[in-house]
Predict the 3D structure of the following.
Amino acid sequence: MALPTHGRVVVETTAGELDIELWSKETPKACRNFLALAMEGYYDGVIFHRIVPEFLVQTGDRTGTGGGGESFYGEPFEDEIHPRLRFVHRGLVGMANNGGKNSNDSQFFITLNRADELNGKHTLFGRIVGDTIFNVLKIGEMEIDANERPIYPPKIKRIRIVDNPFPDIIPRITAEEKRAQQRAREQAQREREDEQRRRGAKKDVKLLSFGNDEEAEEEPVVFKKKPIVRPDLIDSSELPAAISAVVRDPAAPDSKEKPAKRDRPEEPESRPSEKKAKKDETDITKIREQHEREKAAQSNSRQSEIAKMEAEIRKLSRRGVESDDEPVKKKPKKSLLEEEMSKYTKARGTNKKGKGKKDEGDVLAALNSFRSKLKSTAIEDSPPPEQPEESQAEGGEEKPTGEEEGMEVDNDTGFLGHALHFPKGNEEEVMKAEREYEVIDPRQRGARAKEEERERRRAQKVKDITGGRGSRR
C-alpha cells in the first residue's frame, strides 16, 4: 500500500496539465524546494529538455541544456531516500542530480515505466495522479534527436499550488512579481528597438513632402576659427594690413578678439594716410613686444618661485624619509626563527656584548679566590683524621672545650678547614644488602630447575644401571 501524500500542485504545460501529489512528510526538503521555486515562478517557461522513451522525461533547467539549475537553499541539498518509496511504476516524480550523491537542485523527472535502477540513487517526492498521466505519456512519445532532445520541446507554462503543506515558505520573489518584471523588460526592449528603428530609417528625398525638411537638416554648420597672429616672430617692421587689423588693442586685454574684415584695396589712399598707418603699426608692435617681455618676466619669476617651493618640499620630504628610514636601518626585519633564537640567547645571557664578559671574569675571579682560600685553610687548619677518636678516648677532660666550640662564633673561614672522612671498606653494607635483599631472576630459576631435572635423571639412570647388574648376577 502506498504512503499517504500531503501536498498537491498542477503543472500547466503546452502538452496539457500534470496533477502531482507530494510526499512532504517523507521528503520535506525536496518538496519545500519544489514548492518554493514554483512560488517564485522559476519553472515558468522551462522546457522538457530530455526525453528517454519508455524510461523518463526530464525538466527544471532554465538554461534548457541539462547542465544548469539552482536550488531554493542556494546550494545543492542532500538526498532523501525512503525505504517505502521506490520507482516501481510509471508517473513517479523524482529529483535529478549530476550523477553523485547529495547534488539535487531544481531539475526533476517523471518516469514512463518501472525503473528499479533509480532506487537508492534519486529522491522520490511525488506522483502523477488521475488522467494527467496520459499527458506525460504524450510527452514521452514526442520526436527526439540522437541526443535524446525533443525536436519540438514542450514547455511549462506555470505551476499552480493547490495544497501547500508548508505555509511558512517565504519566496524571495513571487511569480506575479516576476511576470510583471518580465513584461516590463519586454516592453522596454520593444521601445528600444522602435527607437533604433526610427533613428535608422532613411527618408525618401524624392518625395515632395520631405524635400524642405531634408534641405533644412543637411545645412552645413560653419565654424569660424580665430586666426593665430604672432607679430613678435616677424622680422620686417612692415606688417600686412590683414595682420594689423587682427592684432587686438593691448589697452583692453579682457575684451574678446573679433576677427576684422580685410580691407579691400578698391579705392586708392593718399600717401600721408599710408605713413600714418605705418607709424601706428610700428607703435603697436613696440607695445606688443613690451607686453610680451613683461609677460615673460612674470612667468620667469613665477617659475623661479615654484622651483624654490619644490626644492623646499623635496628637502622636507627627504628629511621625513630619512627620519623614517633610520629606525628601519637600525632595526632590520627578522625572521620568525631569528626572533625565537634571540629569545633563547637572551635567556642564556649570550647575547650581551660587553657586560657579559665582565660578569664572567668577575665570577671566575671569585671562584679562583675561593679555591685559593680553600687550599690555604686546608693546609693550615686541617686536623689529623684520628683526632676525633683521641678526643673521644680522653672523655670528660674535653667537655668544657666542646661547650666553647658549640657556641656561635662569627668566623666565616672556620668551615673551610672541615674535612669529610668515610670508612675505607663497605663490607657491612654489602652483607646487609645480601641478607635483606634477594634478586630473583626467572631465567636463573628456569636454568636451575633444568639442572635439577638433569641431576635427577642422571641419578635415576645410575640407579637403574646398578639395579640391572644386580639382577643379572
About this structure: The mean pLDDT is 77. Strands lie at 8-13, 16-22, 50-52, 56-59, 92-95, 108-111, 124-128, 156-163. The first strand starts at residue 8 and ends at 13.
